[in-house]
Amino acid sequence: MLEFKNEIPFVEDTSIHDIMKVSTTPFYIYSQEIITQKVKMTKKILGNNIFFSVKSNSNQAILKLMNSLNIGADVVSIGELKRSLSAGFASNKIIFEGVGKSKEDLIYAIQKNIRLINTESLEEIKLIQKLALEKNKFVNIGVRLNPNIDGGTISKISTGKKTDKFGIEISEIENIVNLVSSCNNLNLIGISCHIGSQISNVEAYKNTFAEMKKAADTFVSLGIKIKHVDLGGGFHIQYHKDDPKFEIEDLKGELDTCFGSSVYELSFEPGRYLIAEAGVLVTTIINTKQNGGINYLIVDAGMNTLIRPAMYGAHHEIVSISKKMDNSKTYTVAGPICESSDIFVKNILLPKQTMGDTLVIKNTGAYGKVMSSTYNTRSLPSEVLVNKDNFAMIYSPNKIEKDIEEDIIPSWL
Ligand SMILES: Cc1ncc(COP(=O)(O)O)c(C=O)c1O
After folding, report:
1. Would the pTM of this model clear 0.85, i.e. be above it?
2. How far apart are CA 372 and CA 28, in angstroms?
3. Is 133 among the domain residues?
């Protein structure tokens, strides 16, 4: 996504230098072209029932773009549901997941007549029935199942094992059917699963598909007409050149073998796969130092801007856009936050850097800005969308003074 033309860094036909004239670092840039290509390619392989996982990037402009590409939205909170509706998604193209939905969240989703509320427990099914009855509504629900499959990803983003907090165990299907049969306001028409994120292991997907097909058939044999089988997201992208390669095409054969001519409508909820590679984070070096023989570059983006390295030990490639490689040096790139874990990468080779130079952190379109915070009372990052030689600010943070004003001092102080 980042290209150099005559040594000038470009995203599509827009120079990053031009963006820097109107936006201070740190900021995220997204390429509309790459998002569009990724969505089209995914639809071509997996079919039209793609629901963008809004948790990965919930900017209104990004959601509007996703909606214009004719995909749905997969939300995990009432806030994301409101964001999706506000960006123009039709109610019947929104799926509401989430391991903890409050009564108010459910009432809102019921009133909006969304496509499916995917429930995560028997207790929640009872609550939805009670609320639907009170509101005199018939509600389409799905159940998120826990297929007890280890996707082989890191434990912090694994969601499909029996001991994970997500979904309902497959052994509960009969209990679900018995319960739903007594719920006159509920229409159980779907099952879903999501075994985790950043999964490259095709075998894990294959086993998941098999479990879900078996589960759907079991529901049908017990008299429940399952229409939608949602197979989740989690598709892997390559953050590091040594990461395993994952080809979404490899799932196609497994899907055909497993679901063949079955009548279920298959759907998917990718987030990272559609947008991670379409984003970069631009940051300025604000200090340099040598401690214990380590050459530190301290940049103005920190773990508050992009938390993945500190939280998951994630790797993001970092490149210099100010200097050429002819005079390289080994650096550790760290943020300004008062935490030792605020390090983006250790011991990378970069051209010799000085204060004021600019670095670009790659593949940050997913789980970047959405996970940012004002920790250490620092501003949130801005966001910019590029469309060929056009670009627009799509998020501009509050001034810190405004954040400070939002604190409330009690009368006794
Ligand atoms: C329920 C659900 N669906 C979809 C996703 C999207 O995952 P990914 O961004 O890895 O595709 C997630 C994220 O973990 C999720 O929790």
Report:
1. yes
2. 11
3. yes
Q: Are residues 240 and 283 in the same domain?
A: no
* Ligand 1 closest atom vs CA 366: 9
Q: Which amino acids are annotated catalytic?
A: 338
362 and 227 within one domain: no
Instruction: Give domain status of residue 38, yes or no.
Output: yes
Residue of 234, 316, 231 lying closest to 274 (CA atoms): 234
| Ligand 1 binding pocket, CB closer than 6 Å | 53, 55-56, 74, 97, 194, 197, 232-235, 269-273, 366
Using the mean position of ligand 1's atoms as its centre, give its distance from the Cα of residue 160 in Å.
11
User: Do residues 113 and 217 share a domain?
Assistant: yes
Residues 245 and 351 in one domain: no
Whole-number Å distance, alpha carbon 19 to ligand 1 midpoint, is: 31
Sequence-distant (6+) residues with CB within 8 A of 397 are 379, 380, 381, 382
Q: Which residue range is the domain that position 337 belongs to?
A: 2-29+278-405
Maximum Cα interatomic distance, the chain, rounded to a whole number of Å: 73
76 CA distance to ligand 1 middle (Å): 9
For ligand 1, atom 15, name the residue with the nearest CA: 194
The tally of domains found in the chain comes to 2
Q: Which tens digits make up the pLDDT trace of 215-258?
A: 999 999 999 999 999 999 999 999 998 998 899 999 999 999 99
